[in-house]
Amino acid sequence: MPPLTAPPDLGGGADLDRRAALKLFAAGAAALASGCRRSEDMLPYRDMPEYGASGDAVLFATALPLAGAARGVLVESRQGRPTKVHGNPDHPASLGSTDVFAEAALLSLYDPTRSASPAAGNTPVSWSAVADVLRQATADGGEGTALLTGPVGSPTLARQIRALLDAASGLRWFSHRPAAPALEVPTRAAGHDRVQLWPDWEQLDTVVTLGADPLGPGPAQVAMTKGWTRARADRRGTFTMHAFEPVPTLTGTKADLRSPVSPAELPRVARALLAALDGGEAPADVARAARALARARGRAAVLPSADLPPGALAAVAELNRRLAAPLARLLPFWHWPDVPQEDAGALLSALDEGRVQRLVVLGANPVYDLGAPFTDRLDGVRLVHLGHRQDETALRAEMHAPLHHPLEDWSDLRAVDGTAAPVQPLIEPLHESRSAHEVVEMLRGRAGRAARDLVEDTWRARWGERFAARWQEALRTGVIADFPPPATVPDEPPAPDDAPAADGDGFAHVALLSHAVLDGSHASNAWLQECPAPLTKQVWGNAASLSPADADRLGVAEGDAVVLRGRGAAVRLPVTILPGQAAGTVGTTLGYGRSAAGPIGSGVGADVRPLGPRVEIEPAGEEGGLVRTQVEFGQHGRDILRSVSAEDPGLETAHHASESFYAPWDYDSPSWGMVIDTDACSGCNACMIACQAENNIPVVGPDEVARGRHMHWIRIDAYDVPEDDVRGFQPVPCMHCEKAPCEPVCPVAASVHDEQGLNAQVYNRCVGTRFCQANCPYKVRRFNFFDYADSQAYAHLGADLLQAARNPDVSVRGRGVMEKCTYCVQRIEAAHHRASREDRPIREGEVVTACQAACPAEAITFGDVADPESAVSRARDDPRHYALLEHLGTRPRTTYLARVVPPARSEDG
What we know:
Blueprint: H1 18-27, H2 29-33, E1 58-66, E2 69-78, E3 81-87, H3 100-103, H4 105-109, E4 119-120, E5 123-124, H5 127-137, E6 145-149, H6 155-167, E7 172-175, E8 184-186, E9 194-199, E10 206-210, H7 221-234, E11 240-245, H8 250-254, E12 257-260, H9 266-277, H10 284-295, E13 300-304, H11 310-323, E14 327-330, E15 342-343, H12 344-352, E16 358-362, H13 366-369, H14 372-375, E17 382-387, H15 392-396, E18 399-402, E19 411-414, E20 420-423, H16 436-443, H17 451-463, H18 467-477, E21 507-512, H19 526-529, E22 544-546, H20 548-554, E23 560-566, E24 569-577, E25 585-589, H21 598-601, E26 614-623, E27 643-645, E28 672-677, H22 686-694, H23 702-706, E29 715-721, E30 726-732, E31 751-753, E32 759-761, H24 771-775, E33 782-783, E34 818-819, H25 825-837, H26 850-854, E35 860-864, H27 871-876, E36 881-882, E37 894-897, E38 899-901
Parallel strand pairs: 6-7, 6-16, 7-15, 10-11, 10-13, 11-12, 16-17, 17-18, 21-25, 22-24, 27-38, 28-37
Antiparallel strand pairs: 1-2, 2-3, 4-5, 8-9, 9-14, 19-20, 21-26, 23-24, 23-26, 28-35, 29-30, 31-32, 33-34, 36-37
Helix pairs in contact: 6-16, 6-17, 9-10, 9-11, 17-18
Pfam families: Fer4_11
Region (Disordered): 482-504
InterPro entries: 4Fe4S_Fe-S-bd, Asp_de-COase-like_dom_sf
């Protein structure tokens, strides 16, 4: 498989047989488990690969699944060890950027609590025993046997299941999809039950969302965020987005006009928009949105939530038809027309009817996802589970066997928009696991064929004699170019109006996917558990969000505990108060309350799935244990998160003091700086986890976070914007001040300025006085109160195997050392070395920081501020440019562009 040439900030490599190197690396798996620091335990290469001689990284294209759908990535490999995930610019689901789940995939790969071998209860068994059990399940034609999977986006796996169903005519295939992508909604179109809406952002000037969150977490988040960002940047002042939603979302926060409405009101808004488009009366905010849609006819779309009732969805479909919306209606990525699959509801019915005596669960966790309605029906059912870890379903199964991590596996995968991509391994399997493709072959009684061969069979049958060249090209680029797009679904027929929804007693309950653990499938990942929720900054758990008015009415304050009761279930959660939330609505987050997610995810938060759509709320009269990285969201009269109008984007900037106690600095070119566009930042946290992966930043655990000791080098502050009743986002790394207050107070000169304008931290000088931290007005410096990275790491995070995930170019800091953002100095130095070897200056754009590379909103610009033609210099010339707390005279190198308030905010028509 040919490696891709590394981008300028990472180095390059030559084409070589990587599989040979991986086999040698696999021979040292025991040494890897002992930790990469112990070089005496590592086996050397017999034949040094050319690309490994210099230590440069090599990138390989692959795809990572999220909720079953692909996001194309480039994975950095160093001598056969994956160390960093980057977005693949050639793949439409990533376009060069990543999300938090892709960045955190490395930690999941090296997780020492992954299942290591098959077991029957507490008894280890062989894979031959697993294959015998699977073969017996289909030996009689599969009668009484069911296969349950998650959403299947792999053409090869779908082909195998089709062959399995043909061979075992009594077998039934069920799939469960607990985390559907944004804009995958029910449809009444003949022959279909779900449709994936896919907006063409390049052709959109006005978007109205009805409870939908296209910028929120899920497999389409990066593509949707890219599309929204570019539409807004290209048509600033004309592109507008209006959001009607009950609970604040990332989409609503970035909307130009946002109206909080209860879930019961959303169908009425849909019908009112349709009436207003015909000239009828409507509430003011609905009428304004309708006028914007009418003005942009042909370049406008309405995006609905999947929770809208059929009549409201039909009204939205009619709106989009009349608007000639540039909005494709696609079959979902998991839909395979020639393979009969049923949903989890049909499985419950089959269990009720006694038609399932044997259930094979492949890559799903129905005990947690479906809860009591599933577990209450398991009596007398023989359950076999195949997954990555001993989760809730594995503990109920008579046999469990581990699957490969996606970075160990061969496969293929479709993205939400239907784009197909190859999946290739970056490392030999660390444990006695198998591919899902091999498992399906075991069900067919055909064990023994490798996953790579099975995947290649799919594409060899398609390409024929052209297979070799096309397959190599697909592996190189990470995209299968000629795979047909998914079929389009015709407009749905009209539906009768739904009965008006009654508000009912209690509170409307809106449960959203988690920005950190999604549907709970990522609960065992510590990077994600410690990743703050964008709007509340909560970590290590979920909460019940209330509007300020409802909190006052209930007599609860931020952090107080409440008990939510619904459908006979009771859940205790802390309260968080959100401006802009609809009155009479409580928001919660899915994916928590896991009982078998390893030492990281077990017992974190509460499971809100059983509560249903309406709940009663009762104050518990005690603290709720709310753990947050930010506790205050007001600006207290300071102009921190600035806004400008689209008509007059200029800012009045403070005049820097002409006198200073600091001596002037003279910088050699290049001189580095960063500009962050707060108008573009969507608060998705991709930059934070990318920085954590790149710079070996440890997890400290909930107790330390509660003490204010979180370690992230870049944080995303959220601030209340009272005039809009929302919260805005401001990423804050080290400011790299030219007049840095941290430098003169360090008694050992550990905080110093270098010749490129960087505020450097010399770890081996630091004695931990923390004077620099006290003197920093931006509070961006982090102190290792304990040996967070190793001996005193949280839970199992000091395990030797996890050291393989560390970036070898960045030192691991120990107890008593201060650390902070370095502008990815290791990437800067790598660029200097390359430029020196080639006898040239560093090129514009050659250095890309980890946060900049990850950002799907393209909100971060980095480069040489001494070059007036550089992108960062042009950004600093933008009239929206300002420095944070510039009146202090610290001259920060990290600066900002203000949020833009479009004309729609002040327009009535």
